[in-house]
Design goal:
The chain is mostly beta strands. The chain has one helix and 17 strands. The strands form four sheets. An eight-stranded antiparallel sheet has the order 13-12-11-8-7-4-17-14, with no helix packed on it. Strands 5-6-9-10 form a four-stranded antiparallel sheet, with no helix packed on it. Strands 1-2-3 form a three-stranded antiparallel sheet, with no helix packed on it.
């Protein structure tokens, strides 16, 4: 017995619907985003992100006086790698974020020998945000700052803006766009880890 199957693709939602012979409709997204792009109550309320392979930068010059060389404490990357961080929706169904107080290491300022310390600043606030810009584009930004500062480019230790392979609405693994220690006067990029990757997983 022959079964009639009708298919229709909606370019706005990027979803395809199929009507089989028994009039049962099946809807799916052919690129793996079955949550509906930025649709309230369809995107995950909670996601997690895990960083792996982050490495510390070396010392670099931030510009200015004698004690304007910057370097991180040895435990900076180690404190971030391998942990699962939970992000919740901000009110926008395609933006998730978190701000976590804690001991994330130290930013050291000192002499050009990169050993003699002039001062040190505890990095006590971790900020992470994930934005799903489109069905195929995701932006990830993570930084360490001194509370209550917000993220700014020189403070980032992880940044990604690209088109990863996405499954189940937001699940993906991406590589860090920050791969070089750069001086960005008056802040030196060496005080942040670089390299590594981030894995995003839907929780609820």
């Amino acid at each position: 017995m022959a079964i009639t199957i009708k298919a229709q693709f909606n370019p706005n939602t990027l979803k395809a619907s199929f009507v089989v012979g028994n009039d049962t409709a099946q809807i799916f997204n052919p690129i793996g985003n079955d949550c509906g792009f930025c649709t309230t109550e369809e995107t995950p309320a909670v996601i997690s992100i895990r960083f792996t392979g982050l490495t510390n930068c070396d010392c670099c010059y931030g510009g200015g006086g004698v004690n304007d060389w910057y370097w991180p404490s040895d435990d900076l990357a180690a404190a971030l790698n391998g942990n699962d961080y939970t992000l919740t929706q901000t009110g926008d169904p395609c933006i998730w974020s978190t701000a976590i107080d804690g001991d994330w290491g130290t930013m050291i300022t000192g002499n050009e020998d990169c050993v003699t310390e002039g001062s040190s600043t505890a990095l006590d606030l971790l900020r992470i945000s994930v934005t799903k810009v489109s069905n195929v584009n995701v932006i990830i930004e993570a930084c360490l700052v001194t509370s209550p500062l917000t993220c700014y480019p020189a403070a980032r230790f992880f940044f990604y803006n690209g088109n990863p392979t996405i499954a189940d609405c937001i699940d993906c693994t991406v590589n860090n766009d920050i791969t070089v220690c750069q001086s960005i006067p008056p802040i030196c990029g060496a005080i942040r880890p670089l390299d590594g990757s981030a894995q995003i997983t839907e929780i609820v």
